[in-house]
Amino acid sequence: MKVAVKNIENKAAGDIALDDAVFGVEVQDNILHRMVKYQLNKRRAGTHKVKGRGEITGTGKKPWAQKGTGRARAGDLKRSQDRGGGVVFGPHPRDHSTGLPKKIRQLAMKMALSSKAKEGKLIILDEAKAKDHKTKPMAEAIGKFGFNSALIVGGKEIDVNFARATANLPRIDVLPSQGANVYDILRRDTLILTKDAVSDLTERLKG
Hints:
It contains 7 helices and 6 strands; from the N terminus they run ββαααβαβαβαβα. It is an alpha/beta fold.
């Protein structure tokens, strides 16, 4: 499929042919859902931890007699019902990541790109570069496209001025081509790829 190429001022800069094997795949929501869950699970640190009864600092002395006091029996004051006591069945450090075959991950990436193309929310830029690092002119330039939320994917390296100029723009994310992923593509309304990004992603996913 052929798509028009724009420059940063939203003016025509030619066109580009997108590979249907990458940008024209049938979209399946269940595959995208599995991929998003895979990514979010992998991001979890799994460092949550609470102290159990055996880890609480305190004496092991029996606080009062077993019988005759009228109170419930107690072996120590580190029980879960005591103030400052241990937690029963609390969270412990563990790995939350789930497995997903590489072919499914690649297919999900193709589907994410294809979904944006089919919805008409894919924009191709000739390049993602800025003359300076000022945010105001960049906001004015991006405002000409008419979107409020976008992911901009550049080539293998992002132009320093462009990265700084877009850093403070709300709901605008910028990633290099190797950092493009399903979750970030889907969480933003519009996907913007540079010609270098199209080349890199096609090479990465077509194999």
